[in-house]
Amino acid sequence: MKFKRFIKDNIIVLIFAILTIIAVVIFLQAKVNFLSKANLINLSQFLAVNTFAALGLTFVIIVGHFDLSFGQVGCLSAMATSYLIAHDQNYLLAIFVGLAVGAIWGFLNGILIAKFKLPDMVATIGSGALAFGLAYLFNGGNYIFTHFLTSGIAKLNNNFIMGMPLPFFILIIVFIVCYYFLSRTTFGRRIYAVGDNTVTSTFSGIKVASFIITAYLLCGLLASLASIVMTSALGRGNVQISVSLLLPSYTMVYLGMAVFKKVSITGTLLASVFISIIINGFNLLSVPFYISNLVLSIILLFGLVMSSLFNKRLQSS
User: Fold this and answer.
1) From CA 80, how far away is CA 54, in angstroms rounded?
2) CA–CA dist 25, 288 (Å, integer)
3) Helix (H, G, I), strand (E, B) or coil at 128
4) Quick one: pLDDT at residue 47?
5) pTM
């Protein structure tokens, strides 16, 4: 009986694990060097970039809001970093400025939504378009190449620590920090409380606006980290560097929510592993990008439907 109950309670998790294994087996059978050292390095770097953005978005979803601007904010941050490198500034300073731009933009998003009560989708569409427009001002939308090869920024993508690519090592640190604060601290309990019921949280003495602003700040910061790592890998400033992060990030968050029955850092990470494996395998098989987007869209809709059904069951129980 206990075994049957375990299977019933974790059926979606088991299906998710089985699908992940099936995906790996399919790519192995396709003989596309899926487990080669070079591809595993590429996969880990790709996983890090996607997960940075998805983890930031997770905080926003936890507080019950949406952000449609983080991909474009990442573009602004990447171009700010690239501009400073082109003007022969220290690459660490350039990275810091890029991260600061993302954090400040996220902070302003939070102010618009938490303080001015603007609709989150409309506000972030507007702020994202503004960020994207400003990104074009750095070089008229053209690539920025100057000093990239000599600046040292390539170290952010190419260096290894304890045998792991630096982006993957940073991802482990970011995940541990996010997991600790959400699962082991008062901050985590309160940010979940804000997402569950803002009215109750307000009467409980929680400063709801502060947690919403913090969530948007983290989303902007981590999206900027993703875009700067992508810029390091690309070796040039590209004004459209992170616009493609929107669909994968939402898919990862909602797939993780569907599997683990709530929005969580762990769910987002495991969903990111699954989706990164799928996208990486498709790239090895030279599958057109629109097929990848089609698959991601189906997975996102699945996550939304499962999350909606789970929430309805909670409300009726």
Assistant:
1) 22
2) 21
3) helix
4) 96
5) 0.94
